[in-house]
Specification:
Strand order of the largest sheet: 3-2-1-6-5-4
Largest sheet: 6 strands, antiparallel
Number of helices: 5
Distance between the termini: 201 Å
CATH topology of the largest domain: Beta-Lactamase
Number of strands: 6
Strand content: 5-15%
Structural class: alpha+beta
Radius of gyration: 60 Å
CATH class of the largest domain: Alpha Beta
């Protein structure tokens, strides 16, 4: 009986020990499981934080990349615009040069037309003059308005009984007695122009004696020098001779000579229009 009691007691102790051990194991297991779960949750949370940080960084990198692409596109566009601007500037400069050339040509044509008009008016007026005073008056207007002469004289040839011809003043404009004296053929600038038939043009800026001619224009009718136009000074606003002045001097040298000669012949002939019968007799 005692053995049975001991066995039962032992079994009870063994059973209790197993229960305690089981409970202790379960407690330890669940505790370790909880700790492990907490560790896993902590790691998961940390990984989630790292993932969020990576996502944020990735988003920032995407924004930066998009910004860099936009900047690159902007730089490319700016470069294209700079090239277009340069091309437009070149085109504008070319257009300005062409416009400047057109303006220059227009001014040249305008000056030529103005010169032609002056020559035409001068020639037309000279051929309308029928008397010596009219001729000298038109010559005066041409010299003063078209050339800008301030002082001038018209000298006509007078053949001497013996020796060289003499140039006698027949029309003076703002000239003194010195300019109104006779000039011997070949003497001084006026006489030399008469003897050679060559124009003389001086420098308006050169310091000269008031009685020294600035320009001498021989008046040639046919092959004969019949007089000389002597210019002493230019108007204050006229600083130099231009090409147009030379053309006007050439016109005066020939057309004024013809007008003077014609006016002299008409003055001696009397009636200008002879009528048809008169031309038939001629």
């Amino acid at each position: 009986m005692a053995d049975k009691a001991d066995a039962a007691a032992w079994e009870a102790v063994a059973t209790r020990s197993l229960t305690v051990q089981r409970e202790e194991f379960l407690e330890t297991f669940f505790k370790r499981g909880a700790e492990f779960t907490n560790e896993l949750l902590s790691e998961v949370h940390e990984l989630q934080m790292q993932l969020k940080a990576l996502k944020d960084e990735n988003a920032a990198l995407r924004l930066q990349l998009a910004s860099d692409d936009a900047i690159r596109d902007l730089l490319v566009k700016i470069e294209a615009l700079e090239k277009e601007k340069h091309a437009l500037s070149t085109h504008i400069e070319s257009a300005k040069m062409e416009n400047s050339d057109y303006l220059t040509k227009y001014r040249e044509v305008e000056l030529e037309l103005d010169a032609m008009a002056n020559l035409y008016v001068a020639s037309y007026q000279l051929h309308l003059a029928l008397t010596p005073p009219e001729v000298f008056s038109i010559m005066e207007q041409i010299l003063m308005q078209f050339v800008g002469a301030g002082r001038f004289a018209v000298l006509l040839r007078r053949n001497a009984a013996s020796g060289d011809p003499v140039l006698e003043p027949v029309h003076l404009f703002h000239c003194d007695e010195e300019a109104g004296r006779s000039v011997r053929w070949g003497e001084g600038r006026a006489g030399e122009a008469a003897s050679t038939g060559v124009h003389y043009l001086g420098d308006p800026g050169e310091v000269r004696d008031p009685g020294v001619p600035l320009a001498c224009i021989p008046m040639i009718f046919g092959q004969t020098v019949i007089g000389v136009i002597v210019v002493y000074d230019l108007l204050e606003q006229k600083k130099a001779f231009v090409n147009m002045d030379l053309e006007l001097f050439r016109l005066l040298g020939s057309h004024a000579a013809a007008a003077v000669a014609g006016a002299g012949l008409l003055a001696r002939a009397g009636d200008v229009f002879l009528g048809l019968d008169g031309y038939r007799r001629v």
